[in-house]
Amino acid sequence: MIEFYFVMIAMSLMLMSLLFEIERPEVILASTLMVFVLTGIITPAEAISGFSNEGMLTIGLLFIVAGTIQKSGIVDRALQRLLKGATSNHHIMARLLPPISLLSGFVNNTPIVIAATPMVKKWCEDKGISPSKFLIPLSYATILGGTITLIGTSTNLVVHGLLIENGHKGLSFFQLSAVGIPITLIGLGYLIFCSSTLLPDRKVNVIMESEALREFTGEVLVTRDFPYLNQSVKNAKLRSLKGLYLVSILRDNTAIAPVSSTTLLHEGDLLLFTGDISTITELQRVKGLELQSSSGSHFPEDHRLIEAVVTHHSSLLFKKIKDTDFRSQHQAAVIAVHRQNHRLKAKIGDIILKPGDILLMIVGDEFSKKKRSTDFYSITHLDEKLVTPKQIQKGWIAIGLLAVMIGLVTSGILSMLTAMAITTLLLFLFKFVSPGEIQNQIQWHVLLMIACSFGIGLALTNSGVATSIAHFLMNLASPYGLIAVLLSVYLLTNIFTEMMTNSAAAVLMFPIVVEVGKTMHIDLLPLAIIVAISASSSFMTPIGYQTNLIVYGAGGYRFKDFIKIGFPLTVIVMIVTVFSVWLMWF
Description:
Layout: H1 2-19, H2 25-38, H3 44-47, H4 54-71, H5 74-84, H6 89-104, H7 109-127, H8 135-145, H9 154-165, H10 177-198, H11 210-216, E1 217-222, E2 244-251, E3 254-256, E4 270-275, H12 277-281, E5 289-291, E6 304-310, H13 326-330, E7 332-339, E8 342-343, E9 358-363, H14 365-370, E10 376-378, H15 389-410, H16 416-429, H17 435-441, H18 444-463, H19 465-477, H20 482-499, H21 502-520, H22 524-536, H23 546-554, H24 559-585
Antiparallel strand pairs: 1-4, 1-5, 2-3, 2-4, 6-9, 6-10, 7-8, 7-9
Helix pairs in contact: 1-2, 2-18, 4-9, 4-15, 4-16, 4-18, 5-7, 6-8, 6-10, 7-8, 7-23, 8-10, 8-23, 9-21, 9-22, 10-24, 15-16, 18-21, 19-20, 19-21, 20-21, 20-22, 20-24, 21-22, 22-24
Keywords: Membrane, Repeat, Transmembrane, Transmembrane helix, Transport
Protein name: Di/tricarboxylate transporter
Main location: membrane
């Protein structure tokens, strides 16, 4: 009995920590898992059992295959063609959303949204339309499309692996399509015809424009009277100014950025500061420093301004910018930080970063090579180097290999794990992907969260918490019939997925639906499908799904915008899912 209450308290603390973003999700889940091991609720072997789960291993391999296709530029070129002929709001929705949904059934939806977001923003700027009308539907379309196939989202593969572990056959490649296709078609209809009415026509505070830039920056000229000429920035005490941040030095039409503490100051240097502009004017009191007109603010062509979103799994999270070694790590300097569509007024270096924060940065050419870092998603279009015909050819070959493997899986010749392993091996042998690229393409934080969730799920089972929750659900819903039970399973999963990642929600719900199936003597498969669909259907918050987080700041949205458009879609998807499952299996 003590174990039961201990697990309940630990789970409540874990969910609260995830909800209030006290730490990165993988850290919270790993810490909870270690507590259960140390208290003997699960054994060390049970704690690491998730690392050998077939679904989790398949997800890791799928990251490599999808990354190879994304690298070829085929997805980007397809998106550009879709946008090229669009003329109106409904037209762009009808042209863009269905193909994106179909694509996300076979390719990880996060890179699709990362590629499409700056393109849609640029199209909106050219047409004089607010991007807030399009970016949430873009994210939702990829979420809907991910429910169509087994590889559409990591959640589907996790549920597939859990079914196999529990002695079931698992999901076939297109088994989810019976539910996924109806909810995608109806959901797209809702987005195409209703989203323009529900979404705000909110002009984004485009911090890239010169007027907005002057809000953040000021230029100071170093003259011959400056007492620290040919001395370092640190000796000149320009790195510890209250409310100010030295981001760049312009010298002979060349930018030095980011600026290190050891950079020497020369006569004629133009120092670019960001922060409290009233404090910048006080620099005029320093002998040898002259404040320049803000209208002269500019950047050389080889240094640009970009916006980027801090990810859920960033190494920068919950740290002050000045403590992250940001400049040397990313070859960039932060100009400003926006949170929930408002610029933070604090000194840049003292800002503690959180998921979803938008960073305005000065970057050079080196940043372009690192911009797909796990720390942030770029939401500003950067000019890429031209994709060679050979790279495009490799992309099509990778797509062909994936199609062949899908055919072999569908026909029952190969298992999903074997097919992905063979595809990855062939890509590696033919040098379509290098060991270094494999390391970067695999989203290790996702795998860690999923693996930890398996151990936490076993703790729910061992302590009796899963059985208790299952009985509570049935006592509450069973008097109203089977459909009420199915609805309650969907709702609980959906609540979990708004608090944590979709895959973790599915893993934690699985032992509960196992108990529901045993007690009510119904097949586990339809319950597992409801869990898979519901765990992916995160529409009401910007933090429940990675793609929602990407478009949150880029579209200038507020939290209530997701609730306004997401609540009806959540109800629609829930009703269609439960009715489809009931019709197909019961």
